[in-house]
């Protein structure tokens, strides 16, 4: 998947996948599958697909919605927040170790 946002190209084919998250089952209106990526220049983004009851919904007719795919750029701190919500501790430490402190 590829998208240009504010003059920057985000491409899942050339970016590094940090981790993935899935919820729901095939055919579920709330099914979602997302991946957190880092570009070669260090920018983060989420690429995902989802059903008509997710952030990926698109209106196809009046009162008719469908699922779709999209890319959302994230700041580094937003990427860490996403990772903390969806990835395991090792995946988070592998990518964001300098931002993590002992309790």
Structure write-up:
The protein is of the alpha+beta class and 103 residues long. Helix content is 18%, strand content 43%. The chain has helices spanning 76-86, 89-96, and strands spanning 2-5, 8-11, 16-23, 32-38, 44-50, 58-61, 64-66, 68-74. It has a four-stranded antiparallel sheet with strand order 3-4-5-8. A two-stranded antiparallel sheet has the order 1-2. Strands 6-7 form a two-stranded antiparallel sheet. The model has no long low-confidence stretch (mean pLDDT 95).
Topology:
Layout: E1 2-5, E2 8-11, E3 16-23, E4 32-38, E5 44-50, E6 58-61, E7 64-66, E8 68-74, H1 76-86, H2 89-96
Antiparallel strand pairs: 1-2, 3-4, 4-5, 5-8, 6-7
Main pleated sheet = 4 strands, antiparallel
Choose one word for the global shape. Answer: globular
- Cα(first) to Cα(last) distance is 38 Å
**Beta-strand residue fraction:** 35-45%
What average pLDDT do the residues reach? 95
Instruction: List low-pLDDT spans.
Output: none
Question: How many strands?
Answer: 8
Oligomer: single chain
| Pattern of helices and strands | EEEEEEEEHH
Sheet/helix structural class: alpha+beta
Strand order of the largest sheet: 3-4-5-8
User: What is the CA-atom radius of gyration, in angstroms?
Assistant: 15 Å
What's the total helix number? 2
Secondary structure: helix percent: 10-25%
